[in-house]
Amino acid sequence: MNRSFRLNAKVKILSLAALLAVTALVTAPSSSFAQGFGSVPSARQVIVGGVLFLTVRDAWGGLTPEQRATQVQERINEALSQGPIHVHDITVAKVDGDWIVELKGKRLYTADYDTAKLDDTAPQALANQWAAFLQSTLPGLTAPTNRPPSGTAPVSAGAPSL
């Protein structure tokens, strides 16, 4: 792998991490469970590289929806700081009775019963849906390429909601 290729990949990942950090600072309140793509991101949304990854609809574990979104954003930022994300880095596990989505072996978010009920499904099925969405989206945003970053990331329909 040549030096230019490695440098370009590092710049792309650092640019994405900077975008995530800025996104985490957004504090506009949300008046609905999910905002459209044309609106200003709310504090309940987690956005990665311009892609809406999830909208937190429910409090859980003593955290408000806004706190949960911030926590997920921080977890994604940490994972991105370790380099590109691969499909096998995103898994589903049952930990202490909770169905969770893991990113690089660490809890990303929890598919709790109340959120699953909002989607008329079970926590395990919901965690699998979320993981499938991440597996189909996140690796493409972080894969090193030989071309310079375009400045825009794909917008994906079907972003999960917590």
Tell me about this structure.
The structure is a single chain. The chain has 162 residues and is of the alpha+beta class. The chain has one domain. The chain has four helices and five strands. The chain has helices at residues 3-24, 65-80, 113-118, 123-142; strands at residues 45-48, 51-55, 90-95, 98-103, 106-111. Helix 1 (3-24) packs antiparallel against helix 2 (65-80). The longest helix has 22 residues, at 3-24. The protein starts with a helix and ends in a 20-residue tail after the last helix. The model is unreliable at 14-39 (pLDDT under 50).
Major sheet description: 3 strands, antiparallel
Gap between N and C termini: 40 Å
Q: What oligomeric state is this?
A: single chain
Helix/strand class: alpha+beta
Helix fraction, binned, reads 25-40%
What series of H and E elements makes up the topology? HEEHEEEHH
